[in-house]
Every structure is written in C-alpha cells, then in structure tokens.
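Quick check before the chapter quiz. The format below is the same one you will see on the exam, so make sure you can read both the input and the output lines.
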Amino acid sequence: MGSTLLVTIQVDMQDQTALALQDDLADRIAKTGASGVMIDISALEIVDSFVGRMLASISGIARILSATTVVVGMQPAVAITLVELGLSLDGVKTALNVERGLALLDRARKEAGFVS
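Here is the expected output.
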C-alpha cells in the first residue's frame, strides 16, 4: 500500500514462521524502501513470549532500516497475555485497527519529514 508494507497474520505463528517473517520483512523493506510496516494480528488468539519478542525485534529491525512498524488488531486477550508475560513491546507502536494504523504511520512520516 504505497510506501507501507502490509502483513496480515492469519494463523497462530510457530517459532520458525516468526523467524521467517522477520527475515522476509527485512528483505522487503530493504528492496522496496518502505517507510512503514503494518502487521495485522487481528486473527491471532494467542501470542506467546517468543512471538511477542519477535514483534519487538521486527520493529527494531525496521527502525534501523528507516521504517516505522505498527501492530494493529490486537485482541484484548492477547494484550492481557503479553502484559502477564511481562512483555511491554518497547518500541512497537500499536493501533486498534488498520485505519488508525495508517493514520499513525502517516503522522510518523510527517514527523520524520517524509512527504506522503
């Protein structure tokens, strides 16, 4: 979607799937020059500590590659689980849905001086 990569996760992720996603996104950001990455996790009912750390890692990698990451669609049970696991997802921006996520990315681009 323009300069934003949209990733929709439709199945509960296993460790290998999360690692592959991290590698694929890093490659795509580098190849496309994307300034934003939106990860829609609305279909996920469970996020374990490994997947939570991978989301934070993906955000960090994207940041180093000059892209902002927003995770959207988090289920309340997933948010509760992440807090109970002690995962604050530092550096990961979140939004309730795709529309709000796009608005957040647009604001981040403007703050960084990118023209949309």
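If your answer matched, good. DSSP finds four helices and four strands in the chain.
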